[in-house]
Amino acid sequence: MADDREILREIWEGKVPVCFQLAQEEVYTGEQPDPFFLLVPRLSYFPLVTDKVLRHMMKHVDPEHHGEMWLEFDGQPLKWHYPIGVLFDLYGMSTDLPWKLTVHFQNFPEEELLRCSSKEVVQSHFISVVKEADALKHRGQVINSMQKKDHSTLWAGFMNDKFDQFWSVNKRLMENSGEKAFMFVPFRIYRADQIPVQKLFKPCADSGESLTLRHLLKTAVPELMETDALISSRVLIQGIEPPLDTPVCWLSEHLSYPDNFLHICLMPRVEVES
Amino acid sequence: MSDKNDDDAPPSSPTAGSASTENAGTDGKSPTSVDSPSVSPAPGATASTSSKLKSNSLKVDILLKPAGDAPIMKKKKWTVDRTKKISWVSDFIKKYIKSEASESLFLYVNQAFAPSPDTDIGSIFDCFGSDGKLVLHYCRTQAWG
């Protein structure tokens, strides 16, 4: 269990300013609706925070021809089942703020996005990822020892922005000592236009040495370490670039998303023009 | 993990582990059968064996087991490309058990969690495969939360 509560708090409070604009070709009322501005939590998912955007935009689209709302940035449809912070690190990091997203109600890109008919779909996705994380950390023993109401408390704490309520349950999932020490660290590595990388990674070597972010990258994306590609890459977790010699255990305990996964984005380093 | 019927699949499919299945009409959508050993000993052909090994490493074995009232699949063990998605496996099972495309089907790993439909089989295999195969349970209703 993490001891740096302030860090957990800072991460919890991370937000991204977003400007939502209805796709021009879908404006039905003749007049482009005003853009809608929101400050959204990095840890959340878009379907949990865009009710107001939906209501605002719905008035301006063809009532007969509209489907599920979906979001796009610069031609890239955004997957609702990735945490907002992951999407921002992956696609929005080098753009001006607020992050300008386009709202669509037509031409749902079935090939790229999953459907999300309700918040319950988000909940079942979230709980499933938490279970997967615990399968990796504790062979699923912690999550299986919980009752349904613990799952509900975890979800409600997350969804209603109740830090203490969420951590009252999450601390058990983050238990990392003695018999409950993490077997493997749940992580996913994202790069634009590639499928995410997920592998087994033990937080400690057999010698007992703590393994670092550098070790993890070496295991998960060896091609990156063979060349000097790493020098030209930014390694982002929660929007920050942790030193590569940070122990992975520490990262997992402090910088994981509420789904208990460490989501790592690899971005090409943009040359700063002088 | 083991099932006494694991190897109770129909007799051999000569194309196992080699042919590309993409251009074989509708049937080409099926995973390759794994009834015969996947790397056949090609005498005197070291180069072709190694290239075969390479192409085989792009595929993994999965074992499909029913849960709840889902019908049993007569053939349970299949070889699929690592890059195939969970949604593809789910569509394949639906076709095999003659379930309507609109009906839901849930796939579970470790009898514990349902990976998101866009997850690639290779990653799940790397993390949750054991004894050289990945066991997936399929179910018509949500089985494990």
Write up this protein.
The complex is a heterodimer of chains A (274) and B (145). Chain A is α/β, with parallel strands linked by helices and 274 residues long. Chain A is built from eleven helices and eight strands. Chain A has a five-stranded mixed beta sheet. In chain A, strands 6-8-7 form a three-stranded mixed beta sheet. In chain A, strand 3 and strand 4 (76-77) form a beta hairpin. The longest helix of chain A has 20 residues, at 119-138. Chain A is globular and about 70 Å long. The model of chain A has no long low-confidence stretch (mean pLDDT 94). Chain B is α+β, with helices and mostly antiparallel strands and 145 residues long. Chain B has two domains: 2-39, no CATH class; 56-139, Roll (Ubiquitin-like (UB roll)), CATH 3.10.20. In chain B, 21% of the residues lie in helices and 18% in strands. Chain B is built from three helices and five strands, in the order E-H-E-E-H-E-H-E. Chain B has a five-stranded mixed beta sheet, with helices on one face. Chain B is globular and about 30 Å long. The A-B interface holds A 79, 81, 114, 124-125, 127-129, 131-132, 135-136, 140, 143-144, 148, 151, 184, 195-200 and B 83, 109-110, 112-118, 120, 123, 126-128, 142, 144-145.
Would you spell out the secondary-structure blueprint of this structure?
The complex is a heterodimer of chains A (274) and B (145).
Chain A: H1 5-12, E1 15-22, E2 36-41, H2 46-49, H3 51-58, E3 70-73, E4 76-77, H4 84-92, E5 99-104, H5 119-138, H6 141-145, H7 148-159, H8 163-173, E6 187-190, H9 213-220, H10 222-226, E7 233-237, H11 248-255, E8 262-268
Parallel strand pairs in A: 1-5, 6-8
Antiparallel strand pairs in A: 1-2, 3-4, 3-5, 7-8
Helix pairs in contact in A: 7-8
Chain B: E1 32-33, H1 46-56, E2 59-66, E3 77-81, H2 86-96, E4 106-109, H3 121-128, E5 133-139
Parallel strand pairs in B: 2-5
Antiparallel strand pairs in B: 1-3, 2-3, 4-5
Organism (chain A): Aplysia californica (California sea hare)
Protein name (chain A): Autophagy protein 5
Keywords (chain A): Autophagy, Isopeptide bond, Membrane, Ubl conjugation
